[in-house]
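tool_call: predict_structure(chain=1)
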Amino acid sequence: MKNIHKYILVSLMVISVTGCTDDFENINTDPHGITEESLTQMNNNVGNEFGPMFLNVFNVTPAWNYQLQQGLMGDVFSGYMAAPTPFAGNVNNQTYALVDGWNGFPWADAYGNIMPQALNVKNAVELAGDPNANKFIHLANIIKVTAMHRVSDIYGPIRYTKFNNFATTGEYDPQDVAYQAFFDDLGNAINDLEAFEGDVQFIPFDMSNLAGDIASWRQFANSLRLRLAIRVSKVNPTLAKTQGELSLSNNAGLMEDSNMVINTGFPHPISVISGSWGDVRMGAEMESILTGYDDGRIETYFTPSADETLTGDYKGIRMGIDISAKGEYGDHAAIGSVIDGETLTWMTAAEVHFLKAEASLRGWAGAGDAKTNYETGVSVSFTQHGVSGVADYLADSTSTPSDFTDALSATNNITYASDVKIAYNDAGTNEEQLEQIITQKWIAMFPDGQEAWSEFRRTGYPRIFPVVVNNSGGNIDTDIQIRRINFVEGERNTNSANVTKAIGYLNGPDNGGTRLWWDIGAPNF
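tool_result:
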């Protein structure tokens, strides 16, 4: 992002193109005009809809789109990364001056390249009338839920259950309604796709490492269901337990030894943002936790600081500090080989084991032993990144996260607010055990800052440092930290009545300080 004003203008154009009223007719037209020639190519027509969906759960190109969809939101709010660039005079998302021109991109990507494509698949399959093609609807719905739960976890209420009907497509669902629909869509896919195991028709269209294998797609969907069940475990324990135990007992199984990886055909956008542009560096929390734990994954996640005079090989930046010029912190640790190549990870096996560990703490049937799941999650993450020494790491009962010392200004120094250790303490309280689980889960999910930010908001772990400079005008509490992103400008301008109704679902003002439905701000147990 070499010229932030350029991208703000582009963002406004994109949002206006994908705004609610502008896309009504294109995405909700009656499909009964499809020709016989098109019907003979139904598989190809349906299959072609999957490409945009695969490439926009995380937008992969151009890199500045990813930067606005994810990089200057979840990636920095989670403590994973921080930008050394003082965009807009340092009055931007990192200092809680939320930029409308940036913050519409998660919405625009979803409503331009996910929801319409899933609807096109549904319409084409239903028009063809071939029940063997129903598998495509379920596969599209799995990807749709993968994308849309992330969008909901940014804004809260979204357009989902009523999207497919022209008369209601602009209406929002409260977040609890959207989540129930996510569970319904995943459950139907998991159950109905069992009859299609061994079917090969999705192979040509599958951009993931699952290679069109329907059994593997069922397993991914089931793992995603477990993620979402844990997400709602505080606000609706009954729903969470029901959905979680469905996942734990289902014959689809869970992704316990393989990751969900998309083969995009493009360089990982972070490799451009960090390497070519120098617009992102290691977060302060990553420095505190990985160096404090002497965690070998640091060598994969980051490159040593370019400035050899800095104390320590890996130096991070605290988000929300006073930065006047990019050159001040530009030589801090860049993002490492974890983002090399042309793949992007949607979900890891390590995350699944940590989900099971928390499910065990919550007493869900079939979850197994919390300590075993925790240690397996760490081991699987070490294996994923080619790091040795996991046995010694798991036995370490003394190391704790380090306090953070800013390389340039003592004003930004801060004590890490916990002595959470690595060796699992199964004699500790549920809260103490959960902090260990989420801290290691946070490490293992890198670089997916959106999921990490969501888990921090839900649990309070790991301990993310508050900003030093808060430009929110009082909308976001410095200590409570940012909880969501306000509804996008394009929707406010073109779908204002429905946005006004959606604001009523928030139980608070439409700003970054209002908690989402599942973010109840209460103890974890």
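agent: The longest helix spans residues 134-155. Proceeding to next step.
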